[in-house]
Recover the amino acids of this structure.
């Protein structure tokens, strides 16, 4: 910690929670590894679709708004699932979810514990089916999380003509249940205390917008200033 | 060192130019006010006159403002004085066209004080105009170039005013340039007010490092190319204090 209240040392780049991505347009899962090239860290995706198996932390799904098009790190405005969603922060934000997984030994690489976040409707609808199955059966497996396997992906077309696009919905199946073990939940929701910083720092995960909406004078004032047309009373 | 009170401008200065903060707020060497800052004061005088007296001819308000500017800059050595002074008339006209439709303000230069938890000294400031019947406060900013959104420092300042007054206030900033004008509504008021609080906490932590004002010379370094040091007197002060 520097005198200005934040570290001025260069980031190690490799200490962040690693990511699992689902490419809905291709219907494939990618484990995104951060690799030190000697000249800095770069992201290297590894396709883990075949034989995909992972423990899903469905106890701790976070929902809300996500903007992936920030030009930098995504902007998450999330709350624990079931809480009222925060106000939509901006046009770039879409409904999305985030949760953590632990990949199986076969596909996990050096860092099997990861987070996945997405706004893809195809993924969300596939996860919904898994979640309903989890909700239905979790009481029979107290203290355990589901082990999900990817059975297949199903193409879903949307739009018309040139606007038509195809996304792939994942179809999961619960293959078993296991204790959480080292899959420790790390939140991105302020209401989970995730971003609480010392000395009552603001809990947002990205800088707040200042405002770029042009506004006119209040209507009531305008009415008082502009003389009424005689016809208004006619 | 202890500070008696914070102001939004001093806290914003700490962010943008820590060395100048040391020079002005710790060592007490206030730098000459440039013609642009005087222009802001003068325009506000003219606009205030025009808002309080809605039927007053705009050219009279312009004359008020220009007279004030001439008074304020009578001893100024700022070489841009004439150019900047020539922009006042347009800015007053634009600002009155923008704000007269709001009606007569219910208060001007309202004093706001806030002492959040953990802060030794309060934050104090003054907003420009309020229309209580509409729940609106407006800060007027004169600037060379029209921003496309509210600047962060201005957002913190306005967020502080709005947050301290009411949790249901429409806070706005009217920017006036020599050619254009725009009024923007502040978003995320609480977050910007909290940001100002965070900066104040850091200022107090920074100042607690020593009771010796000279110590702060030893841990800061000014950027001499910054516009903050464009005035030859400011540049000289930097050289004398920092040997830079």
């Amino acid at each position: 910690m520097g005198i200005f209240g934040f570290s001025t040392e260069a980031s190690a780049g490799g200490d962040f929670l690693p990511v699992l991505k689902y490419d809905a347009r291709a219907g494939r899962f990618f484990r995104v590894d951060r690799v030190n090239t000697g000249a800095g860290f770069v992201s290297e995706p590894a396709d883990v679709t075949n034989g995909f198996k992972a423990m899903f932390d469905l106890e701790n799904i976070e929902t809300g708004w996500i903007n992936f098009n920030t030009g930098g790190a995504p902007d998450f405005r999330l709350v624990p699932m079931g809480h009222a969603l925060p106000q939509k922060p901006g046009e770039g934000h879409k409904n999305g979810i985030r949760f953590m997984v632990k990949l199986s030994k076969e596909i996990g690489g050096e860092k099997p514990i990861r987070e996945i976040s997405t706004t893809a409707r195809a993924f969300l609808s596939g996860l919904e089916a898994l979640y309903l199955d989890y909700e239905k059966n979790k009481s029979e497996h107290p203290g355990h999380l589901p082990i999900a396997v990817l059975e297949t992906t199903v193409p879903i077309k949307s739009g018309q003509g040139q606007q038509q696009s195809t996304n792939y919905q994942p179809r999961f199946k619960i293959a078993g249940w296991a204790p959480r073990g080292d899959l420790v939940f790390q939140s991105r929701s302020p209401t989970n205390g995730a971003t609480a910083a010392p000395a009552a720092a603001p809990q947002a995960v990205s800088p707040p917008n200042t405002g770029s909406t042009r506004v006119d004078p209040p209507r009531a004032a305008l009415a008082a200033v502009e003389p009424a047309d005689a016809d208004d009373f006619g | 060192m202890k500070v008696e009170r914070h102001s939004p401008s001093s806290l914003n200065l700490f962010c943008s130019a820590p060395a100048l903060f040391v020079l002005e707020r710790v060592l007490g060497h206030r730098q000459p006010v440039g013609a642009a800052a005087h222009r802001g004061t003068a325009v506000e005088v003219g606009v205030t006159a025009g808002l309080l007296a809605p039927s007053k001819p705009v050219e009279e308000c312009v004359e008020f403002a220009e007279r004030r500017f001439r008074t304020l800059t009578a001893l100024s050595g700022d070489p841009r004085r004439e150019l900047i002074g020539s922009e006042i008339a347009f800015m007053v006209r634009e600002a009155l066209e923008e704000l007269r439709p709001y009606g007569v303000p219910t208060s001007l230069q309202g004093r706001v004080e806030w002492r959040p938890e953990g802060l030794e000294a309060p934050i104090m400031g003054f907003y420009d105009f309020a229309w209580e019947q509409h729940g609106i406060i407006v800060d007027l900013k004169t600037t060379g170039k029209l921003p496309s959104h509210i600047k962060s420092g201005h957002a913190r300042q306005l967020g502080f005013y709005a947050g301290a007054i009411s949790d249901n206030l429409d806070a706005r900033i009217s920017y006036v340039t020599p050619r254009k004008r725009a009024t923007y509504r502040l978003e995320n008021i609480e977050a910007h007010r909290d940001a100002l609080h965070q900066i104040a906490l850091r200022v107090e932590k920074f100042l607690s490092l020593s009771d010796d004002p000279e110590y702060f010379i030893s841990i800061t370094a000014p950027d001499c190319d910054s516009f903050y040091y464009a005035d030859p007197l400011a540049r000289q002060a930097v050289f004398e204090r920092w040997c830079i």
In short: Strands of chain B lie at 107-114, 123-131, 136-142, 170-176, 181-185.
